[in-house]
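Annex B.
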Amino acid sequence: MADAATKADDYKVQAARPAIDLVKPGMKLGLGTGSTAYHFVEAVGELVRNGLEVLCVPTSEATRSHAEKLRIPLSSLDETPQLDLTVDGADEIDDQLRLIKGGGGALLREKIVATASDRMVVIADESKMSETLGSHPLPVEVVRFGLRATTRLIQALAAEAGCEGEVRLRPGQGDLPFITDQGNLIVDCAFHTIPEPEVLAFALKRVPGVVEHGLFLGLADVAIVAGSGGVQVIRRAGA
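Ribose-5-phosphate isomerase A: predicted structure tokens.
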């Protein structure tokens, strides 16, 4: 088990390395969240120590804390509303570069930062690739008010979109629920398969209590995926 975990972490490092080659002096970067993005942030920190000048916007408080320790120059989207490049991980990727994100709970900020970027590059190990999205539970960020009603409506509209499964409140520490950086809750939807991600995304947006969902559609331009066969670069058609 330890060997498998070590190998997976090695793949994450291998995926992050080519992404760092995309970083140029003077760039405004979005810094992703999660175990794979962690390695990219580490690499940016090393470049900064060696004199690279960049300005970065983190996608979570965890990434902000990490970047501050590395003394990476940071900004916000209010101060820097347009970014050149965002590099982030993913929980699941299909061959059209449609993503499920939000396993770490930062999906709202991640989507806002990705949308504000000219280009989004996803870095991942090969276990994240999937023919059909849904093997990873789909995170949906919701407000606290009316949670039960919101959950029921998510289930009903998702079923109309061809997706059925348990919709479960994400637990946090002890008996408390997980709280996002924005103070919201997350429900994880175990649909197992999402036959039409665009249809489901539209359905979820109809739920008043939904703040954002973890389907990232048409945002990723390139995926850098590392595995037993080496590093593969996948480009979205038309990107």
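The first helix runs from residue 2 to 20. Residues 81 and 90 are 23 Å apart (CA to CA). Further annotation is deferred to the next reporting cycle.
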